[in-house]
Amino acid sequence: MAFTEHLFNKAYIDEVAANAAASLKANKGFSNLEAFAAGVIQRRLAKDPARYLDYGVYWPALKEVLRKHGFDCGAPVYPLLSAAYQGDTDLQTVIMADQFRADYLATQFVGTRTFLVDKDTGEEVTLIDDDMEQKALNS
After folding, report:
1. What pTM was computed for the model?
2. Nearest-angstrom CA–CA distance, 80 and 125
3. Is the pLDDT of residue 1 over 80?
4. What is the spatial distance between Cα 139 and Cα 130, in angstroms, rounded to a whole number?
5. Which distant-in-sequence residues (6+ apart) come within 8 Å of 133 by Cβ?
6. What are phi and psi of 125, to 5 degrees?
7. Is the predicted pLDDT of residue 30 greater than 80, yes or no?
8. Are the beta carbons of 62 and 94 closer than 8 angstroms?
């Protein structure tokens, strides 16, 4: 399977991360953007676990980053997506996932779970994370 859609230029992501880190330092006095952003995402998902879908194809890699930061979001899912849609660093992955979320919220209905991943073949993936779906049912 080729992954041609929803990819970000890593230089652009590094620029977004640098700007966000500078803003975080100036406004909050924090210097660990990755931990801060992971905490924000964890709090969002604690309120509404079904919103993991907001992160779309970046969810599997983001989930791994959140697990590293102590968020109990269940077992790894979709290893092929995780490998294709991640940055060179965990911080890049978090920023990419958040950029995807911004695009998603601007262009999709909340709860959309099917995403085009290969424009040439029309191949799509449908995200279903049983652990997060269970958390959503229990919340």
Report:
1. 0.93
2. 11
3. no
4. 14
5. 49, 50
6. -120, 145
7. no
8. yes
